[in-house]
Write a structure and sequence with these properties.
about 375 residues; alpha+beta; seven-stranded antiparallel beta sheet; five-stranded antiparallel beta sheet
């Protein structure tokens, strides 16, 4: 966020700390447990949230050089991202036009992609370069059998993809600023293109994908669930929330924020004392962790609403002289907090959702980011509950 917004958020946080308050939603919010356990709801989410909406994929620095690529399964659609020799990031369905095998796996750097099944080869723009056994495929129009392109865009150091091939005649371009809304200014201020990738971790917890996002959208649980890990460093149940269309920003204060009180407001630097949690609709959490960027993305399982795929990435500042052991410590804290505390409890909660013993969960007024997230989901799905 810019300096003016930083000061405004800092004042709000100090006011909440002094008044023992927090930003509040308009009312309690009740959510049916079927939102976490119903197969039909899960199908609707995959179709409307993970096909029609632009999905944040990575910071641009993850594909830093021409030829860098990565592959993912986006809720059932295999996707290939690659940076071309012209510097442009392009996205494709990772499906060979011959028999449907993926033409790339994992991540790396390549000049071309060769299908492992029969050796058909594609360049970084998705163009089919050639087939093996050319006699057998004589007459095949190579130009019309390239990899199926997907809309992709890069701005503010962020890469987005819409995982749905455009219909004939449809451009399907992604407007990143429109996708981010007023949050675009915050993303630009973070200078995300100056943070190279440090680590990537992936897990498949036994929870609905929305619970993985819920984990980051309230500070109410911090003094309780995380009392032995991050709890002592944060002021729990106290924060600010600002909506940006379907996106949102929640800011929570570290206990160190009291250090700014002795300074005139114009001289106060709140950045070392405030963690900003950005929820990018529908499935991404970007966390400004004072000296690095932590990103969590959750994707629904293609069949089971009670499972999801979660990726956690850490990006460190390019100009840092800190040793890798320092960033490894930050990675360890994130893993111990979320993967060893939040998600294991969530797995037990998922069992409760699927048991049929209760009909709903309740989000309090002190959880405005959580309320906004689920209201945005309902609006996008066109459902009342």
């Amino acid at each position: 966020m810019d300096r003016k917004e930083e000061l405004a958020v800092g004042r709000r946080l100090l006011g909440h700390i002094d008044g023992r308050t927090t930003d509040l939603a308009d009312d309690l919010f009740r959510n049916k447990v079927i939102a976490y356990s119903c197969r039909e709801r899960a199908r609707l989410e995959r179709e409307r949230l993970f096909r029609d909406h632009p999905i944040f994929m990575a910071l641009g620095t993850r594909l830093a050089r021409p030829g860098d690529y990565l592959t993912e399964d986006l809720a059932g659609l295999p996707v290939l991202l690659a940076r071309g020799t012209d510097g442009t990031v392009r996205a494709f369905a990772n499906i060979c036009r011959h028999r449907g095998a993926p033409v790339a796996q994992g991540c790396g750097n390549a000049r071309a992609f060769a299908c492992p099944y029969h050796g058909w080869t594609y360049d970084l723009t998705g163009r089919l370069l050639g087939t093996t056994d050319k006699v057998a495929f004589a007459g095949l129009d190579l130009a019309s059998h390239g990899l199926v392109p997907l809309p992709a865009a890069e701005k503010h150091g962020m890469i987005f993809v819409r995982p749905k091939p455009p219909r004939p005649g449809e451009v399907g371009a992604i407007d990143v600023d429109a996708t981010l809304g007023v949050m675009a200014a915050d993303m630009d201020a973070l200078e995300l293109d100056s943070y190279p990738i440090f680590s990537v971790d992936r897990i498949t917890p036994r929870i609905n994908w929305k619970f993985a996002i819920d984990t980051f959208l309230e500070g109410y649980h911090i003094p309780h669930l995380h009392r032995k890990t991050i709890g002592p460093y944060f002021i729990g149940n106290c924060g600010t929330f600002d909506a940006a269309g379907a996106n949102g920003r929640m800011c929570v204060a570290r206990t160190s924020i009291d250090a700014v009180r002795t300074l005139p407001e114009a001289e106060r630097n709140y950045r070392p004392h405030v963690i900003s949690v950005y929820q990018l609709f529908p499935n991404t959490i970007v966390i400004w962790q004072v000296d690095h960027i932590e990103i969590w993305r959750a994707f629904p399982h293609r069949d089971d609403p009670g499972r999801c795929d979660v990726e956690m990435t850490i990006y460190k500042p390019a100009d840092s002289d800190r040793p890798d052991s320092y960033w490894e410590k930050n990675r360890d804290i994130a893993i111990r907090t979320v993967m060893e505390e939040d998600f294991p409890l969530g797995e037990r909660m998922q069992v409760g959702f699927e048991s049929g013993a209760t009909d709903e969960v309740i989000y309090g007024r002190n959880e405005p980011s959580l309320v906004h997230f689920h209201r945005s989901i309902r609006a996008a799905l066109g459902v009342a509950a």
